[in-house]
Amino acid sequence: MNDIMINTERKYSATVIPNVFIDRYLASANGAYVKIYLYLLRCLTGNEMQFSISSAADFFDETESDIIRALKYWDKNDVIRLYRNGDDITGITLLDLTAEPAKTAPKVTGSNAKVISINNIRPDATKSVAEEASKPEAEDTSSVRALPSLSRADINKALEEKEVNFMSNALEMYLQRTLSEEDQNLLVNLYKNLGFSQDLILHLYEICIDRNKKKNSYIWSTALDWYEQGITTVEEADNRTMLYNAYFNAVNKAFNLGRLPGDKEQKFIRAWEGMGFSPEMVKEACDRTLLKTNKTSFVYADKILTSWNEENIKTPEALAEKDRNFTKAKGTKPARKVSKSAENYLNRYTQREYSASDMREIERQMLERSLGFSIKQEQEG
User: Fold this and answer.
1) Residues near 268 by Cβ (< 8 Å), separated by ≥ 6?
2) Measured distance CA(244)–CA(238) in Å, rounded
3) How many CA atoms within 13 Å lie on the side-chain side of 174?
4) Res. 107: pLDDT tops 50
5) In whole angstroms, what is the distance from residue 69 CA to residue 37 CA?
6) Is 50 exceeded by the pLDDT of residue 15?
7) CA distance 227 to 111
């Protein structure tokens, strides 16, 4: 897997935010995008600080698609420059904002470039980098998934509605705290912008809290997933949750975790679901991982499933056919020729054949050595 390389055209001894960035971009950029740019600056000033799409997603409790979208936004606005090798992002350069925007991507070379090695990104659970790149440019200029900020007046007006006020009180009990303005903003967006019913909103919070995910960004991201999948009822949400849990149960059963998978492990599972594998196929890959490595390894299981995905092997029947073909091909290979150096040492010499009389003579000689005198001489005497 290739590393992503991140570079800058300037040297920083501290996390410095260029004034031109504040003057030119801060007012118009989405807040989530600004955080990603600041995070890139911090990575450049850290000692061997590693950056990857997955680590940034974990840090901000966002999806990998959100991180990629932010990077593409800054690339489009000539704040950074992304480098790709096929579907993979291989490098990020933070451009000198005091200069004219570069028309072509500069090469990542030179002694003045500060380079940090970054792990290669893994395709998102439902979208690859190539699919992200193929989206219309219009979608890059604004955050499709960012939580809209409503005015205080609009929030207060919505809270005057009986149903919204009831949900506000219920969520305070769910979260065990008074709702902040950000919490209220999220609630009103769920109700007004996404059109979620009262039952669906409360059910959404119940599921997220059960997963110990109480951040507004996670709740909003989950709500958008439901919205994009056309989920409008609690029953449809439960069906989706059951499928979500089926993958977790398959992995738990195979790896005998005895716990819920961690955040990074969940990203693997969502990626496998996004590839179109059933829980049964995921379990099979995990079973084979244990047989091969004798340990729990999501990375190795991912290699197996990625190879199956590349070969379009998505069903147990297709996998069984692949196994049969492999066994058949292995059985038809010519026998391995043993080198002369590996031959038995004694086989290099001509073997003598012994008759019955020869064997008796050998026995007599062995007996003489044991007794200490000649049997033939005694018989002659």
Assistant:
1) 261, 298, 301, 302
2) 9
3) 21
4) no
5) 12
6) yes
7) 49
Residues with Cβ within 8 Å of residue 55, at least 6 apart in sequence = 119
SS3 label, residue 81:
strand
Determine the Cα–Cα distance for residues 122 and 233; give it in Å rounded to an integer: 32
Amino acid at 75: D
DSSP class per residue in 203-249 = HHHHHHHHTT---HHHHHHHHHHHHHTT--SHHHHHHHHHHHHHHHH
- 65 vs 51: CA distance, rounded Å: 16
* H helices, E strands: number in the chain: 17, 4
Residue 380 half-sphere exposure, CB side, CA atoms within 13 Å? Answer: 4
Query: What residue type is assigned to position 271 of the chain?
Result: A
Q: For residue 116, is it left (φ>0), alpha (ψ between -120 and 50) or beta?
A: beta
Burial grade of 7 (CB within 10 A; 0-12, 13-18, 19 or more): buried
Q: Give dist(CA 93, CA 107) in Å, integer.
A: 9
User: Hey, is 37 helix, strand or coil?
Assistant: helix
pLDDT digits (tens, 9 = 90+) for 186-199: 999 999 999 999 99
Query: Would you mind telling me the total number of residues written for the chain in this entry?
Result: 381
Calpha distance 54→67 (Å, rounded): 9
Please name every residue paired with 91 in a beta bridge, in sequence order, or none if there are none: 5, 83
HEC-encoded secondary structure of 250-295 = HHHHHHCCCCCCCHHHHHHHHHHHHCCCCHHHHHHHHHHHHHHHCC
* Beta strands 80-85 and 116-118, pairing class: unpaired
Least confident window among 227-236, 291-300, 345-354 = 345-354
Cβ-contact 185, 150 below 8 angstroms: yes
Mean pLDDT of the chain: 76
Handedness of CA 216, 217, 222, 228 (dihedral sign): positive
The pLDDT value recorded for residue 233 is 92
Contacts for 326 with CB less than 8 Å, ≥ 6 apart: none
Which two tokens mark 248?
């977790």
* Three-state DSSP class for residue 107: coil
Q: Which residues contact 119 (CB under 8 A, 6 or more apart)?
A: 1, 3, 4, 50, 51, 52, 54, 55
